[in-house]
Amino acid sequence: MSTQDAITVEELPIVSTALRYLDQLSPPASDVVKDFARLYLRRVHDGPLTKLPGDQLAAHVVGLFRFASDRGLNPISVRVFNPTEINDGYSSQGTVVEVSIADRPFLIDSVTGEIQSHGIGVEYVVHPVIGTTRNQEGILVAVGPARDADNRESIQHYQLDRLIDSAERDALHNGVLRTLGDVRRAVDDFEPLKGRVLRMIDLAGSASNLYPQGQIENVSAFLRWLLDLNFVFLGYREYDIREADGVPSLQTVPDSGLGILRDNATSAYASPMPLADIPDELRERFESGELLVITKANSVSTVHRRVKLDYIGIRKVDEAGKICGEARMLGVFTSKAYMAPASQVPLLDHKLRRIIEAEDLIEGSHDHKVVTEIFESYPKEELFSSPAAEIHRSVMGLMRLRESQHVKLFVRRDLLNRSVAIVVALPRDRFNAPLRKRLQKLFMDRFNGTSVDYMLALGEVDPAQIHFTVWVASGEIPEVSFGDLEQQVATMTRTWEDRITEELIHRVGEQEGRRMARRWA
Fold first, then answer.
1. Which 8-state DSSP code applies to residue 83?
2. pLDDT < 50: residue spans in the chain
3. For burial by CB atoms within 10 Å, which of 67, 132, 197, 458 has the most?
4. CB crowding 346-378: b at 16 or more within 10 Å, else e
5. Cβ–Cβ under 8 Å, residues 184 and 76
6. DSSP 91-140
7. pLDDT digits (tens, 9 = 90+) for 67-83
């Protein structure tokens, strides 16, 4: 389309309609409201707003402008309401959420995630970014294109899939406010958060009186890898073990918090807590263990993606070679990190090399290829958080299963006793969605889980692998007999052919039973 043929904003039907009705108001809408209408409605396409009568469309625009202007000097404005013609000049089939905030990354997906976390769907959304000028009281006095503006604001209008009641609206309003507060803190602290990664690298380097140099180098390489767009940094805080009232205690380091961990008062360790009062599994984590801790936090990210936060911790080591605290980073691994081959990720490549060297595998050999393929099939979270020895045992166990039709189970407790990782390996032809759902329920019941995630790995040959993560209340993983659980899984995966073959063998003997099964099963 040539420049002469391009459609101007005023020629868009919804814009021309709104401007005509804005002129019919008494008094007519101001120029800044009309400019706002042009910038906002140019982003409106098929949806409920295009079906509003002209007078209701104008009322909607005026109401949204006033809401955005009335934010004034406040950093965030949110309203959740059920529009009516009497109160708002227009009506909607679903509750409306509107937001006014300085533009930042992650706003739309974070708000959408918060809405959906309340069990509510988003039917329609409009979210232009506009350039703004506000007076000393914060009132909008001019709006314009965002591209060259000094101040850019995100104006968001969401129509939900149904009308919700007053209590639900209050809960949603508070949730969206909290989420946007987290986005502001995380985005505004982005550069300082990146800088704390360098601080963590320095802490790792100063731990040579407790950890071997090779481990320090691997950890440092991994931390530098995070900076290459492989991690969304959301929060940071440091903790020290120090004497308080004559006893060793754990406490947050004042003013060390950034992002979603900026407010130290939200920590359970804002005041010194004697180590003796901390649950055993948590105390052991602070007093001993590997230089680097990678696991999942209890809480779900409110910023960007609604997933459990990834937790990366570095031990702080004093001059005497004793652990004296921790530097903790919270965030989420990016899609770039998940797409990278595990064998090319610092720390994970070391774990793979340890397996290959321990098994004396020759590069290019059949076994080398199989081990690498199995290793790559594991979820990144499992590879990051599992000790190398456990990954070694599981990978070699899966390799041996390639030559059999058996069902095998591999179980690992999380370092913080917050989850159980389970790998079910079985012949590919036995896998189906109903079986996966039955296994999920089994693991939820046996481990008293609060939720369960899964990932399926189907290679070209057996076995298929289903990776489950069962989340439990912290420190409350029940004792479960591994043998009994594996037997239950094996029973659930048995096919009709398995059962009829077993019955025929029982009745007529091994050879004849298998012959009959091949013919009739």
1. -
2. 1-5
3. 132
4. bbbbbbbeebbeeeebeeeeeeeebbbbbbbbb
5. yes
6. --SS-EEEEEEE--TTHHHHHHHHHHHTT--EEEEE--EEEEEE-TT--E
7. 999 999 999 999 999 99
Query: Which two three-digit tokens encode residue 366?
Result: 């059949």
| Nearest one of 231, 228, 234, 236 to 196, comparing CA atoms | 236
| Amino acid of residue 18 | A
The pLDDT tens digits of the residues spanning 426-476 come to 888 888 888 999 999 999 999 999 889 999 887 666 688 999 999 888 667
Contacts of residues 243-252 at CB distance under 8 Å and 24 or more positions apart, as own/partner, are 244/272, 244/274, 245/272, 247/274, 247/275, 247/276, 248/274, 248/275, 249/273, 249/274, 249/275, 250/275, 250/278, 250/286, 250/325
pTM of the model: 0.86
The encoded tokens of residue 299 equal: 């809480």
Residue 473: enclosing H or E segment and its boundaries?
A: none
CA proximity to 10, closest of 32, 31, 41, 33: 41
Amino acid at 492: M
The pLDDT value given to residue 329: 98
Q: In terms of Cα–Cα distance, which of 260, 263, 256, 257 is closest to 300?
A: 260
Residue count of the chain: 521
Residue with tokens 């180098």: 217
**What does the alpha-carbon distance between residue 288 and residue 32 come to, in Å, rounded to a whole number?**
62
Q: How open is the CA angle 464-468-472, to the nearest 5 degrees?
A: 165
CA–CA separation, 418 vs 381, rounded Å? 14
- Report d(CA 143, CA 128) in Å as an integer: 12
Residue where the block lists tokens 């918090």: 257
pLDDT confidence of residue 164: 97
